[in-house]
Amino acid sequence: MLILFVSAITLKAQNNIKESNVFSMDGNVETMRVAPGGMLLVGTSDGLTVIEAHNKNVVFQYKSLGKIKPEELTLLENLPYVVLTRGYSKVILSYFTGKEVFNSSKDGWGSVFMVRPDYTNQKIYMLGGTAKGYSLGVFDMETLKNENTVSFTDKKTMGAYIDVTKYYESNGKLFVRTEKGIVCVDKNNFTIDWVYDDLDKATPYISVIADSEKGLFFVTESDGKKSLLHKIDGSGKRTTKKPEKLEAIPQALSITSKGLLVQMFDGKDSFFQMYDLKTSENKWEKPVDIRGGIFIAQPTETNLYYASHNGLMNSLDLTTGKTQLKKEIKTGPVFKNVVLLENDLIFYITSTDMGIANFKTGEFAKDPTKFKKATNLISSYDTKNDRFVVSSGTELFFIKNDGSSIKVMDIDFKENETPTKIEFRDNGILLGAKQNNLLVSYDGKLIYESYLKAPGQSLLGKIAMGAVTAALMSQSVNQNMAKNYKDARYSANAATGMLGEMNKRFSATKESRNYLYILTKLEDGVGLVKLNKEDGKKVSELVLKDKKPEYEVDDDFGILYFKNSKKQITTFDLR
């Protein structure tokens, strides 16, 4: 999705990019938002209008709320729903049909503060207020039917209010913060299991972790100065006389076979301590003190592997809390990525080098690879060849799990650009930025390099590239390294109805993803150039005669939406 906010009067199309449809709005266009599935949501001074890619007719208009401002329109990720917010009320529409699937004022909710999907269980949770008081609503993801409502009405144990902006999840339970403590809700039947009412109402930092099958519930709280650990049983009672004092503000909790591992930070130093699962007393003689913050901490059955921001790595014995390497593994400063591999190996990238280290020996598998100049470090995992692909901004590397690396090439993007994406394609690896792109084969040979001059700094300054940057950043190395990784968000695609429709639409967009759309300066003015990703060749152009166009491009469905007047949108077929 490319979003460019600039104003315009005329357009000239050439080389196959032709005007396809013109849509007249009833009100002034306030905002345009490309939605997954080939839809454009247009907020106007008159309401919401939805246009479908390559369809000459408006899908629907929704005028019940009147003028729609940009901040009032929210998309639910990977779901065909748009949330319209007006004050404390919310309306949720299916943007494929325009059907109102939820309306807080009509459905008995005086206010809705939070809407959060649970993709694994195909539910949507809402926290807000009903006639009974503060409540948690449980809705079917497919139909938005209200399946359960949990009301927090017991002021004696819960207090006068709840935190309606968030909740905590662990091991099949939901934990809602109230004025006095925590309410535990079972996700299977959505009933309240217990209420714990002994938290300080002023503490802003809360963490919760549970193993409900074993009746283990731990809650930490901190006001920044005083930090406490509460151990709670299956009936909501604290099992100790008083809460356990913690060293600093808790940052992460892990239930291990050795006990409860707590990671803490006091603003300068980090601490690890193990607490007994029965008594909540500390098991190690003293907490492990590590200078600086922690970049990553990953417990296994017997060890804790960690990397600190100051460039040191080590492992702890979970039984004793002792460091297992006499000397920390020293890398360059400022970690950019760290991935725990098999056989006690760890892959790391810092601002100065990268390599594979061994936690058993404390040695590097091979000498670390030094970067000539790191301007923008991005990385991804090439599953086909079982290796990492790393761009330092000025160089491209392949590095294997044994630490052996190959410098593939120097990168010299024009206009001081550096790669912001790594995409694996059938014929090679594509590295790209706004104006520059290059494709290298899997054996490291350059297939092509393309560059199109930017349309001018004054115009580029007006381009909102946030969404582009987020979309083009390389996939998480940690995600790609997980052999059995499954993103629960996409389990929604197995459903039928609207969710199935969304899945069907995306399976039909592969052809559009074979092209790049680059904004540049053409002979006749500023324009959009369509390039083939396979060979870098220009396919077609769309010339924008005016200096300040306002439009959006849907890359997935190959369409450009152009605002050519206050009340009119013209579409261009980019396929």
UniProtKB/TrEMBL annotation:
Q: Where does the source fall among the domains of life? A: Bacteria
Name the Gene3D superfamilies on file: YVTN repeat-like/Quinoprotein amine dehydrogenase (2.130.10.10)
| Name of the protein in its database record | Uncharacterized protein
This protein's species is Polaribacter gangjinensis
